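#structure-requests
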Amino acid sequence: MADLLVEKREHTTLVTLNRPERLNAITFAMLEGLTQALKDAEADPDVRVIIITGAGRGFCSGLDLKEAAEGRGIGGALAGGGGVGHMGTRDLPTVVLQQLDTPVICALNGAAAGYGLDLALGCDIRLMAAGAKLAPSFAKRGIVPESGGTWYLPRLVGWAKACEIGFLGEDLPSDRALELGLVNSVLPDDAVLPEALRWAEKIAANAPLAVKAMKRLYRHGLGTDFEGHSHHVLMQLMLLFRSQDFQEGMASFIERRPPRFAGR
């Protein structure tokens, strides 16, 4: 049985962490596979949304501790260990996630801890099962969030709440995660993936060039001033005005029919 499943459903690539007996703990092979799956989806012009979820009752319990103890996996990557091979930190899934223009939905079917929490935070949208939890227990293990958590949390919830989450290291049930704004919606446990697929379908029905440009601009806006950002927005608009999708968007509005975007 493959530890990582990749399935294309119309305009959506569904990626499933598939080690349910280990609550989908991440191995080195899974890191490589997930990175490649994300890059492949980004390069496929027919893919408009990516969904990441887990098999069984957990989303991801973090790094495979056995591999980490042996200096392999992401532990080896950060320490410069020999088990990493050609894979550097730039090729880690959480780094690649930050570079994608394709929207990414995390279907949090179960607990997300350690690396699994950082992976979830790296997605654009998070839908969470009512029975799931987020486990930011880094301080209880003598470490820090190694794969993006220290970058994402202050931006998602503000400085004070990020400090509360990180310093206390207490589990966050779904209702608390929703209250903090860490997830977009909380759903019955068996409804998370179906709802994620519905959201993906709705996103895919919109103009993919515009959606990807919007995501790029969101990312750009995090690190620049308003005037500089506005210049980038204008440049993106000029490009979109020349697209077939823009013409289709205008025509469908005038003709009062659903648009049929081709991504061109």
